[in-house]
Specification:
By secondary structure, the chain is an alpha/beta fold. The protein folds into 2 domains: 3-87 and 231-431, Zn peptidases (Aminopeptidase, 3-Layer(aba) Sandwich), CATH 3.40.630.10; 89-214, Roll (Aminopeptidase i, Domain 2), CATH 2.30.250.10. It contains 9 helices and 20 strands. The strands form 4 sheets. Strands 1-2-3-13-4-14-18-16-17 form a 9-stranded mixed β-sheet, with helices on both faces. A 5-stranded mixed β-sheet has the order 11-12-20-19-15. Strand 2 and strand 3 (62-68) form a beta hairpin. Helix 2 packs parallel to helix 4 (233-251), helix 4 crosses helix 9 (418-431) and helix 7 (353-366) crosses helix 9. The longest helix is centred in the middle third of the chain and has 19 residues, at 233-251. The chain is globular and about 65 Å long. 45% of the residues are buried.
Length: 433
C-alpha cells in the first residue's frame, strides 16, 4: 500500500475522533457513515423479516452493524469485528456543583484506568448525552459537545510539592475536581450551561451521562509526520477501521460466503458488564434474530456460529523507548510496522494458532505487515473483549491491535500507517477473499 491511502485513512480517522468525544458520539459518527453508505437502522420493535442489505442497531454507546446479501442462506457464517467505543476519562457526578476556597468546581468520578497526571493542566470541554422530558411522556435523548476550554484540573506548583517528580501518587479522591470559575458553588449552574449548549430547557433535563474531554484537536507528530497524536485512539482507531472495513466489505459481499459484522461495545474499560457491554447478550440476540429474520431455525443459527470467526480489535502496546525492560525482549512492536497479534496463554487474549493463521493469511492478501505481541512474564497482562466474545458465542477469536504509546492517557500516539493497515486486513477478513 502506498503512503497516500494511509494518509487519506488517517485524515478521516482524525475527523472521526474530533467528532466523537464520548461513546454516544462514536455511535452517532459510525451510524452517519453507515447511513451514507446505504445502511439503514433497525429498531428492536421493528419487524426484521426478510431484511437484507446494510443494517445496524444502536443502543446508547453501542452499535451492531452487518450486511446481508440478497439471497443469503440463513446459515451463512459471520465474520465479526469486535471493538469498543469507550475510553478512560473523568465523568461528571450527579450533583456536580461544588467548590472550595473561593473557587467554583465540578465534581467528577474516575472512569476506567486513567493516568491522572495526563489530565492535569489541560483545557477540558464537556460531552455526552442528556435524557430529556419528551412531549408524549417518553424520555428522549440529545447529544451535547462543548469544545470550549471550560474546565481545568490545576497541578500543584512544584514550589508547594517538591516530591512531585518522585512518583508520588495523586490522591484520587480529593484533588481531581476541575475549576471553572471563582466564587461560591451555584446549584444547577453546570446543568444550565450544558442545557444551553444543547439548545434545551434545563427544566426538561431528567438525567445525564456527561464526561470531560481534552479539546486539543487530533493531529500529526514527528519529523516526517509519521505519528498520529489524539485523544481516544484507544479504541476509536479500531472502531473507525471496523466501520471502514464493513462499508468496503459490503461492496463485495454479494460474492462473499460470509456476512460481515461490526460490534462496537461500550464499557470495555470497566469490565464490559452492562446492557451494552461485551458480556451482555446484545450481539448474540441481534445475530440470532438476523438468522431468524431470514427464515432460519435453531440449526441454522448453530451452523452460522460454527463457521464464524471474530477479530477483537483493540489498541496494543508499542515498545517504550524509555522503559524497554517492561516489554518482552523478543516481542517489541513498533509504530508503522503493522497491527499486532496479541497472545496470552492464560487467555487474557483469545488468540490461538487458528486465529493467527486466519489473520496472517488476510494480512498477506491485503499486502499489510503485522507484528506479534506477548507481555513480559513479570508484568500483568491486559485484556479485551476477545475472551468475552469467544466465551459468549463459542467462535474462534483473534485479538489484534494497532501498537501505540501513552495508552489511556489524555492524549495517545500511534503510527500513521497502522490504522490503514488494520482496516485493509479487516476488510479482507470480512469479505473472506
Amino acid at each position: 500500500m502506498t503512503p497516500a491511502p494511509h494518509r487519506s485513512h488517517t485524515d478521516d480517522l482524525l475527523s472521526f475522533i474530533a467528532a466523537s468525544p464520548s461513546p454516544y458520539h462514536v455511535v452517532a459518527s459510525a451510524a452517519q457513515r453507515l447511513e451514507k453508505a446505504g445502511f439503514r437502522e433497525l429498531r428492536g420493535t421493528d419487524d426484521w423479516t426478510g431484511a437484507t442489505g446494510g443494517l445496524f442497531v444502536s443502543r446508547a454507546g453501542a452499535l451492531i452493524a452487518w450486511y446481508v446479501p440478497e439471497g443469503a442462506a440463513a446459515h451463512t457464517p459471520f465474520r465479526i469485528v469486535g471493538t469498543h467505543t469507550d475510553s478512560p476519562n473523568l465523568r461528571i457526578k450527579p450533583a456536580p456543583d461544588t467548590g472550595t476556597s473561593g473557587w467554583r468546581q465540578i465534581g467528577v468520578e474516575i472512569y476506567g484506568g486513567v493516568p491522572l497526571n495526563t489530565w492535569l493542566d489541560r483545557d477540558l470541554g464537556i460531552s455526552g448525552r442528556l435524557a430529556l422530558r419528551g412531549p408524549d411522556g417518553v424520555p428522549r435523548s440529545r447529544l451535547v459537545q462543548i469544545d470550549e476550554p471550560l474546565l481545568r484540573v490545576p497541578q500543584l506548583a512544584i514550589h508547594l510539592d517538591r516530591s512531585v517528580n518522585e512518583g508520588v501518587a495523586l490522591d484520587r479522591q480529593r484533588h481531581i475536581a476541575p475549576i471553572w470559575a471563582l466564587g461560591e458553588p451555584r446549584e444547577g449552574e453546570l446543568l444550565r450551561r450544558v442545557a444551553a449548549a444543547a439548545g434545551e430547557d434545563p427544566a426538561d433535563v431528567l438525567g445525564w451521562d456527561l464526561m470531560l474531554h481534552d479539546i486539543q484537536p487530533p493531529g500529526y507528530l514527528g519529523v516526517d509526520r509519521e505519528f498520529v497524536v489524539a485523544s481516544r485512539l484507544d479504541n476509536q482507531v479500531s472502531v473507525h477501521a471496523g466501520v471502514t472495513a464493513l462499508v468496503d466489505a459490503a461492496t463485495g459481499a454479494a460474492q462473499s460466503a460470509f456476512i460481515p459484522v461490526l460490534a462496537a461495545f461500550d464499557h470495555e474499560e470497566v469490565g464490559s458488564g452492562s446492557e451494552t457491554g461485551a458480556q451482555s447478550p446484545m450481539l448474540e440476540r441481534i445475530l440470532s434474530r438476523s438468522v431468524a429474520a431470514r427464515g432460519g431455525s435453531d440449526e441454522d443459527w448453530s451452523r452460522a456460529l460454527a463457521g464464524a470467526f471474530c477479530v477483537s480489535a483493540d489498541m496494543a502496546h508499542a515498545v517504550h523507548p524509555n522503559y524497554s525492560e517492561r516489554h518482552d525482549p523478543d516481542h517489541r512492536p513498533l509504530p508503522n510496522g503493522g497491527p499486532t497479534v496479541k497472545v496470552n496463554v492464560n487467555q487474557r487474549y483469545a488468540t490461538d494458532s487458528t486465529g493467527i493463521a486466519v489473520f496472517t493469511a488476510a494480512a498477506e492478501r491485503a499486502g499489510a505487515p503485522w507484528q506479534p505481541f506477548v507481555s513480559n512474564n513479570a508484568m500483568p497482562c491486559g485484556t479485551s473483549i476477545g475472551p468475552l466474545t469467544a466465551a459468549r458465542l463459542g467462535v474462534t477469536t483473534v485479538d489484534v491491535g494497532v501498537p501505540g504509546l501513552s495508552m489511556h492517557s489524555a492524549r495517545e500516539l500511534c503510527g500513521v500507517r497502522d490504522p490503514g493497515y488494520l482496516a485493509a486486513i479487516l476488510t479482507t477478513i470480512m469479505v473472506g477473499d
